[in-house]
# Entry
Amino acid sequence: MGRMYTPGKGISKSAVPYRRTPASWVKATPEDVCEHICKLARKGTTPSQIGVLLRDAHGIPLVSSITGTKIVRVLRANGLAPEIPEDLYFLIKKAVSVHKHLERQRKDNDAKYRLVLVEARIQRLVRYYMTTGQLPPTWK
# Structure
């Protein structure tokens, strides 16, 4: 699939291992991993940062192969999941920062255009999350 707002059609990406079982060198138990995830979430770490920290600091390559569930599902089971999805949160944060920039620099036409594109992406994501039930229908 091509990009939304650029002409690129890049296919460069990393592949998740086909094997669903954890690697033989991983010694972590599912309980330990869930405990690490909850501890990091209580500190205010986002789910993607939790995955990076577990990979880099604790030697856990893929949480779902060990626990059988994804990081956000573990957080949701423990009542620690963020109220809005992470990608939507960061798009809203980006739109707010561009809007603040436009209050100071009103003639920045490129920023105006980029704000339109970011807001369109936000609307697409909100529509998707409402249909999947991750956001309430009355969310604004």
